[in-house]
Design goal:
The complex is a heterodimer of chains A (277) and B (373). By secondary structure, chain A is α/β, with parallel strands linked by helices. In chain A, 38% of the residues lie in helices and 17% in strands. Chain B contains 13 helices and 16 strands. In chain B, strands 2, 3, 4, 5, 6, 7, 8 and 14 form an 8-stranded mixed sheet that branches. The chains are: A alpha/beta (277), B alpha/beta (373). At the A-B interface, strand 2, helix 2, helix 4 and helix 11 of A face strand 2, helix 3, helix 4 and strand 10 of B. The structure holds thiamine diphosphate and iron/sulfur cluster.
Chain lengths: 277, 373
Amino acid sequence: MAHEEPINYYEYLRPNKKYPNVWCSGCGIGVVMGSLIRAIDRIGLDKNDVAVVSGIGCTGRMPVYMDFNTMHTTHGRALAFATGLKISRPKLHVIVVMGDGDAMAIGGNHFLHACRRNIDMTAIVVNNWIYGMTGGQYSPTTPLNARATTAPYGNVEQAMPICEVAAAAGASYVARTTVYHATEMDKFLEAAIRKHGFSVVETVSYCHTTFGRLNKRGGVVDMMRWLKDNSVGQIAAQKLDEEEKAAKIVRGVVCDVEKPEYLDLYQQVIDRAMEAK
Amino acid sequence: MDIRFIQGNDAIAWGALAAGCRFFGGYPITPSTEVAELMARELPRHGGKFIQMEDEIASLAAVIGASVGGLKSMTATSGPGFSLMQEHIGYAAMTEVPCVIVNVQRLGPSTGQPTAASQGDVMQARWGTHGDHPIIALCPYTVKQCFDLTVAAFNMSEKYRTPVILLTDEVIGHMREKFEMPDFATVERVERPHIPVPHEWYRPYGDTPSDVPPMANFGDGYRYHITGLFHDDKGYPTQRLDEVDPWIDRVHRKIERNLEDILLWDEDEVEDANTVVVTYGASVRSARHAVKLARAHRAKVGLIAIKTIWPFPVEAVERATAHARRVVVPEMNLGQLALEVERVVGRRKVTRVNIANGEMVTPQMILDAIEGK
Ligand SMILES: Cc1ncc(C[n+]2csc(CCOP(=O)(O)OP(=O)(O)O)c2C)c(N)n1
Ligand code: SF4
């Protein structure tokens, strides 16, 4: 590993796209984009064979900067667009990037069914616990009692565990890490893209300009440090009691199973239909 | 000869297959479900794929995604599902991705009456999604037209890179007629054009003489960006007025300059008519009968059966009603296309004939209006 060639990011970025990007400086979404590029580079995918599809939100702006087939769709529906695209072009490696509101609120139903169908695609959920783009409203992953512009007295809704939902709904590969753990993220994204089936990687991030400000969590460095101090790997997590564990972000592979992939199964439909002709 | 006795919904599915449709994403809803069922059976035999999505929002999303991947794609629905699809109709218009949306109209609003007929979604088909956008909506009134207009819908969607709505209704969808299945090889199809330039030169939304830039499919080596935001010629988001304005102009112009190809209608005996019935869809069936009865009484009555309701065929209606004293507009709603007819011929000439309870407009109702009763 240590002898690997340093990656040339410019090869994967669009030279004719206007910069700077839309993100607040220091936003964790950029870390996820860098990691995605490294994972794709490591696998050695041809850029023409990669499609990155997103919904709406700060995270949804990620694909436009990258030199793949890119599609910025509607809020919450990226997985449904991606499903049609993958079925239509099975040779494409379809990667879907979504915010937590995008994936789990407005897109929650599509998320469940994408997991259940197990089509060979990868979903990356950038979980910053809040609606970034619209300025800091609470999302399905906002922690209990945290502040948001629409929860000025504290959030009274329970947070949704993205990975556990994905695993229960039938995804083949599910993993969680944070933007502080970029090397681990590279590894998980690589495994997710390589997985033949539906894979989900939750990348816990932060939104310092909304969540950080409203909850007095400091700036980028403070929030990064918080992710470092408040997340544990699975082995360390085993030593914690339930209450301690609940207070931590547990990083690691939540599930990695082999199950029949949708397009493989659909081939059986085609075969049977041809027989019955 | 392959003669069959089939319903309108089946003819839509066969028309789609003949047009080269190879992807269907849908969600069951009466009275459109037969389209999905036939596509589920036939697509895998024709080298295509069918998927039942989790709702209609997802259905149209998958259809657009599949079209971006290079397959001609369609969905079919009715009122409640059509309401859910509106955001993505706008997305397809904005991103200029060809697709066909079938709406077999049923009585609304809301769940309404699933098995009852209606023409209540005429204005929704035009303006259901937010923002100014062009749209094409076709309206068959026979089983054969269900086939032919579905083919036309696919061809127009490819030619003009636009969503096309096939706006039919419960009566036409479930009505059975004798139908001669054509040899699919003889059906005229419009295919996506070859892109004449290499990747670096490709402009997915660039200016072209036709105003319709050629569309590249994802995976063909033209890595570009698609977004529902206003975008420049490369597909990248823009707020520049000198990029937003030309886009709005071009997407409307690409339809307006091709009206001759897009606008379809039939005329019966309008030459000497002092009364003209203007209608569409199932209401044409009653209107034909009423006109025949009126002619038997020596009344000078003509009929225009509009097949392209959006864009509205202004000139055709203008021409056919120029000498008419009375223009009768029967519809299974409380007066939707009548608003367009009134705009063209003036309100005073127009007699509306409306019913919005799930029943058809009867020939007698139209005859009464023709006779000024
Ligand atoms: C149908 C619809 N509803 C609402 C919005 C407004 N909206 C844009 S982004 C967003 C939420 C973004 O939050 P999240 O998905 O968590 O992504 P982030 O910006 O935090 O990356 C909302 C509600 C929209 N674009 N479309
Ligand atoms: S608003 Fe938050 S999520 Fe959006 S770019 Fe800024 S820091 Fe990132």
